[in-house]
Amino acid sequence: MSKESICLKVHKRSGQEALILANTLGLTDKTLLIHSNTDSLFIPLVREPSEREFAALREQLREFDVGSGLFSEKKGQEKTIRQLLHGVLAPHLLACLPKALDMVGDIAIIEIPPELDAYKTMVGEGVLKTHKNVRVVLAKAGKVSGIYRLREFEFIAGEHRTATLYKENGCSYYVDVAKTYFSPRLSHEHERVSSLVNDGEVVVDLFAGVGPFAVPIAKRNRNVQVYAIDINAAAVDLLKRNTRLNRVDNRVYSIEGDARQVVDEKLANKADRVIMNLPETAIEFIDVACKATRSSGGTLHFYGFIRAPDTVEGVKRSFSKAVETAGRNVNAFEYSKLVRETAPYEWQVVLDAKIR
Predict the structure, then answer these.
(1) How far apart, in Å, are the Cα atoms of 19 and each of 38, 48, 134, 318?
(2) Inter-axis angle of helices 51-60 and 15-24, to 10 degrees?
């Protein structure tokens, strides 16, 4: 059967970015098949994008159009949670159901709005019924906070645990979402950055977590050295397990400690490439990244947050000023994009900067 739907039209070269962005914004209609022609990709949407969502699309995609078209329904499509709870919850409560959830292995992480707090167990059971691979449903119970970037969770359905095995881009990871920071929404970045690393490079990952950057880099390249640092002992324990699990423990050196101190004592002037995935405060570690980079120059992968009315260009200016304060210069920004929306009018941004 075919169904008319609002859709996002993009050039195929931007297809992967468009899919990630549409999914992140909760816009993709997953009951319908994506269509394509020679040049374009047509992504069916559940609704017209809001003004805020249009701004995110304009910021990240070079060219796009929102129109309508006929799309084939997926065969054997499982019920959505909205369909499952139709007639059980009042219409105004159905409208409050989260449009997206994070999947980490067999754990689903969901944000329950205040209107649905009394029905959260029902929502959790609905997630279990509509996602056959899910064994645990956790509700966010606070913001990411603290030096370890942890979040509190509430069990609302399924097994009572926070540890799981997660697979991404051909790599496997032991993850404990209560003890370590981890975001499956950065899977495209993990793959993209690992694809840029050249044979023979030395990479310093300043805030490595359980290894989602370090492991794929080492797995792609047999002749690299990756120094993966994290201040969280639980994260480093899992990082070590993950390097062994993926058979890259001979190329990834797991280091527990404060990145500033570790670079000062062990890693000054060593790196061809530095990864800075600490968006809340990465700007405060520009001097550390510069110190780790070879005197001949290198590449910094910087992740930060941007809040309207700030722009990516504004982040570039702040970054360049911090690099100059550290005694270096930005030779070129080789890549800059909004990675994902993290809150209303707030996005995570990435800069790839060549410094000298």
Answers:
(1) 18, 16, 23, 30
(2) 150
Three-state SS for 114? helix
Residue 27: count other Cβ atoms within 10 Å of its Cβ. 24
Q: What's domain 81-161's superfamily in CATH?
A: Met-10+ protein-like domains (3.30.300.110)
- What residue segments make up the domains of the chain, in order of their start? 2-72, 81-161, 183-355
- Residue 156 phi/psi, 5-degree rounding, is -120, -10
Q: Between the CA of residue 36 and those of 9, 12, 22, 159, 268, what are the distances in Å? A: 9, 8, 16, 40, 49
Helix pair 187-196, 15-24: axis angle to 10 deg: 150
Structure confidence by residue, pLDDT tens digits, 219-263: 999 999 999 999 999 999 999 999 999 999 999 999 999 999 999
CB of 174 within 8 A of CB of 165? yes
183-355 topology per CATH: Rossmann fold (3.40.50)
Specify the pTM: 0.79
Nearest by Cα to 211 from 186, 199, 200? 186
Give the domain 2-72 fold.
Alpha-Beta Plaits (3.30.70)
